[in-house]
Amino acid sequence: MTRTGGTPKARAGIAPSSPQAPDPTGADWQVWTPGRYQLAEGLRPHRGGMVFVDLLKGDLYRCADAPGRVPHRLLGLGVPLGAVAPVSDGDSEWIVAAGTGIALVTEGGRPRWLDRPEAHAKLPMRMNDGVCDPAGRFWAGSMALGGDAPVGSLYRVDHDGTVHRVLYGLTVPNGPAFSPCGSLMYLADSAEGTVLRYPVDPRTGALGAPSLLARFTAAEGRPDGMTVDDEGLLWLALWGAGQVRCHTPDGVRVQTLDLPTPHTSSVAFGAGRMYVTTARHRLTVPDPLAGAVFARASPTTSPPARPFGPSPGQRGPYSDGHVPSYLEFMRRNL
Questions:
Q1: pTM for this structure?
Q2: By residue range, what is the domain housing residue 121?
Q3: Pairs from 56-62 (Cβ < 8 Å, separation ≥ 24)
Q4: Which residues are catalytic?
Q5: Is residue 18 part of a domain?
Q6: N or C, where is the chain less crowded by C-beta within 10 Å?
């Protein structure tokens, strides 16, 4: 999420939330969820469907396969849930950025914490957005609860379950998102209105020197959740502007899509559709569509949510694709 508000523009083309086939031309958005969420975020394509979080409530949902149907709640953690990724060797286990740390959790189970690096920070903190890179490492950001102090960090979780702080001094980190080959990472600081591009060593996860990909004024909205499609294009949800924008890897804007509510928070592709989450959070008088998940037909494709853990055949210290014993110990004993 970001801390900047906005006023929705007058827009048309919104389909009703009752079940119906998506517009084959992709001209209209559909309201996919009957409910409205306080802070829907973290859209990820997973096993032919789409999952998202209601961040402040701490819930994880799987979207229904047709509009107007109630999503299935997969997790209810009771602490802020910024983002999830599946674990490589199962269908019901997730690595989560939640509360003040990072944990493994199964449906109906309690979190097994890998680390809580923000538990003893001077300011009250929480985890925010996160994702796995193509090599199966989990990356997640942290922020002050007020979203107004540059005390947030970016953490990387390696395959052995160790948590490393790789960046500090962020205010509201969102993303990251990775290029298809894993050699570039995009990271937004929503409060600063910036999106930075980092070179990444795919073998180690080490970051190189960043460059500025895009900067947004408050009037343009703030960069929030993002994804990279199969062609390497970066798609950004702009909080406060009610927009999704598409940029090339060198920052050229190639497309802008308007939505009917201002706080767009994440974007993802799956099953022939583009999905966008929105929020009621920080709207004094939320409009009737604030907090809905939207979808529209789209020819754009992107990889499914990459799982945490090394892939079979992956080069490196875990080339056999086996999740190291540390995580196995966590599953058995915590």
A1: 0.87
A2: 29-333
A3: 56/80, 56/281, 57/81, 58/98, 60/84, 60/94, 60/96
A4: 224
A5: no
A6: C
